[in-house]
Amino acid sequence: MGERWRTWEEPLDIEPINQATELADGRVLGENQITWSAEQIERFRSGYKCLNCLEPQEQAWPEHCPVCGYPMRTHQAEFFAREYTGVVHLGPTTTLEEERAGIVERAVKEEEARGNR
After folding, report:
1. Would you give the distance in Å from CA 63 to the centre of its chain?
2. What is the pTM of this model?
3. Count of domains in the chain?
4. Is 17 inside any structural domain?
5. Per DSSP, which regions of the chain are E strands?
6. Whole-angstrom Cα distance, residue 62 to residue 97?
7. Is residue 97 part of a domain?
8. Domain range for residue 21?
9. 62-95 confidence digits (pLDDT tens)
């Protein structure tokens, strides 16, 4: 079994956005809005996961990511502050109570419709 700190967690959602970055060699990279769990966001914020390559880190804020070389200690906090957009709601727009009330309401309407035939 691997080390707990090295556990990979996939993003909750990845959504393309209408924005791109042009590299010095002329290539154009599309950008995505990536939604992470609260636990993963905290790992990025506290320096336990590289924002560049997404590699988990055993110790917080290494000088450079040992996988991609990203200067985590000097750049990651600023990048996180600039790019983090806050909490994004995923899932239904109604509450459980609203759904329950809707079920009852639909059942009443169905009964009324059957009685009017």
Report:
1. 25
2. 0.63
3. 1
4. yes
5. 13-22, 28-35
6. 46
7. no
8. 4-91
9. 999 999 999 999 999 999 998 887 876 667 777 8
Rounding to the nearest 10 degrees, give the CA dihedral for residues 18, 49, 79, 90: 40
**Which of 21-25, 42-46, 70-74 comes out lowest in average pLDDT?**
21-25
Tell me the two tokens of residue 53.
């390559």
- As a whole number, mean pLDDT of residues 27-47 equals 89
Residues 6+ apart with CB under 8 A from 45: 80, 84
Mean pLDDT across the chain, nearest whole number? 86
Is 82 among the domain residues? yes
Beta carbons of 6 and 57 less than 8 angstroms apart:
no
Residues counted in the chain: 117
Euclidean distance between CA atoms 23 and 17, whole angstroms: 18
